[in-house]
Design brief:
With 331 residues, the protein is α/β, with parallel strands linked by helices. The chain is built from twelve helices and twelve strands. This is Catabolite control protein A.
């Protein structure tokens, strides 16, 4: 049986307004009445409906989080940062997977707003004009986490992806490599375009000619990393180093190379871009651009709480620092 506020009011012999005041911590209730109402709530097992409370208070203390794929270790670490800060500030999370599908992303934005959320944290690879319009017309604050939109109008938390990629490739050019491949994540995604720009920038700075055949587009997965190496090894001049856009594909590249008898890092050096827990699970461990994944999620959620609570926001576009963690996949 679903216990309602009406049941509590009737059992306690008070009005529904009094029950509501008790539930919401309103001090304008006599101690004796408050005690009686709380006893009835406990005895009946009443659980206040957050949305119904929100209609009265205009707040549900609920935040919507739209994420491409919670099973992906990259997004799982981001989501953990979001949830921990949400809990710290007494917010509940509604999390939905978008599967990197633009139509589903727009649908989820509408669904979240229909659930009376107080704010949205959005993660997605490709922010279109339709997304921007939805964010700008949203009735609640929106913050992007590990997602870039070109106008700079929507608050966001990221790293400098172009510079991070340039730093990683420069590490390989400084080691004397001239045939450096790039295994990219889908290049339709804005962040990945920034990473590609950084790759080309580092090659140009080292005076190395760009070769289209050394850029292989993957799809974030382990299998696409294996496939990328399969294509690279067939080149007349295979690469001596590979920069990979994420850890999962990098593991695929390493395993594909090892299956072909290539020794890592003596014959092939590999640098990945994420430094998720996966980077520590492969042997040799991955040298990687360290994105502070937990921090990106945590800072995005804290930024959202500022907007929801009308606090002063000095920097709506947050760029967190990155660094390269040298491990066993490079010399």
């Amino acid at each position: 049986m679903n216990i309602t506020i009406y049941d509590v009011a009737r059992e306690a012999g008070v009005s529904m307004a009094t029950v509501s005041r008790v539930v919401n911590g309103n001090p304008n209730v006599k101690p004796v009445t408050r005690k009686k109402v709380l006893e009835v709530i406990d005895r009946l097992g009443y659980r206040p409906n957050a949305v119904a409370r929100g209609l009265a208070s205009k707040k549900t203390t609920t935040v919507g989080v739209i994420i491409p794929d919670i099973s992906n270790i990259f997004y799982a670490e981001l989501a953990r940062g979001i949830e921990d800060i949400a809990t710290m500030y007494k917010y509940n999370i509604i999390l939905s997977n978008s599967d990197q599908n633009a139509e589903k992303e727009i649908h989820l934005i509408h669904t979240m707003l229909g659930k009376q959320v107080d704010g949205l944290v959005f993660m997605g690879g490709q922010i279109s004009q339709e997304h921007i319009e939805e964010f700008e017309h949203s009735s609640v604050p929106v913050v992007l986490a590990s997602a870039i939109e070109p106008t700079g109008k929507i608050p966001s938390v990221n790293i400098d992806y172009r510079q991070a990629a340039a730093d990683a490739v420069a590490m390989l050019t400084d080691a004397g490599h001239t045939d450096i491949a790039f295994v990219a994540s889908p290049l339709k995604d804005t962040i990945n375009q920034h990473v590609l720009s950084g790759y080309y920038e580092a090659l140009e700075a080292a005076g190395i000619e760009k070769k289209d055949e050394l850029v292989i587009e993957g799809d974030y997965t382990y299998d696409s990393g294996i496939e990328a190496w399969s294509r690279l090894q067939e080149l007349s001049s295979p690469p001596t180093a590979v920069f990979v856009n994420n850890d999962e594909m990098a593991v695929g590249v390493i395993h594909g190379a090892q299956d072909n008898g290539v020794h890592i890092p003596d014959e092939l050096e590999v640098i990945s871009f994420d430094s998720s827990r996966l980077a520590l699970m492969v042997r040799p461990q991955l040298t990687s651009v360290v994105q502070p994944l937990y921090d990106i999620g945590a800072v995005a959620m804290r930024l959202l709480t500022k907007y929801m609570n009308k606090e002063k926001v000095e920097t709506p576009i947050v760029v967190l620092p990155h660094h390269i963690e040298k491990r066993g996949s490079t010399k």
